[in-house]
Write a structure and sequence with these properties.
This is Copper homeostasis protein cutC homolog. By secondary structure, the chain is mainly alpha-helical. The chain contains five helices and three strands; from the N terminus they run βαβαβααα.
Length: 157
Amino acid sequence: MSSGATSVVPEILEICCSTLSEVQIACEKGAHRIELCSEMEFDGLTPSLDLIKDTIIICSQHGVKLVCMLRCRGGNFIYTPLEMDNMLNTLSIWKREGLNLDGVVNITTAAIRVIDELYECGVRRILTSGLHTTAEEGKDIRNFFFLLLWIGTSDEG
């Protein structure tokens, strides 16, 4: 980046944690946001309700935002109806327990992984509305997805 250029992406330090000690250390070392999950050997699964509640306390003491992984199993991101019901049930439990659900589901991360998988299968173009109802509303995400594919294909000449 040349001098005088500004970054359009805000710098946010998000740390993926699966234990309270990891959360505590991340908060003390300056994390802006914690992504809480369990079972890192499966690339992260839904954390337990108790872990979430304890993490909320630590994060609130440090002014750190918290997002939680909602993923019922490892492997791909193609879920059966039963698995979808399982994850919706988890959301219902979180809501019933009084967790502040702002309605934001980090589908962008899942979409990025899907783009990676599609790229590995040879896909070089994706028609998308950028995770929104209209293409205009999703233009920023679409541009980000385009950049991901462009970076992946730029080495192919």
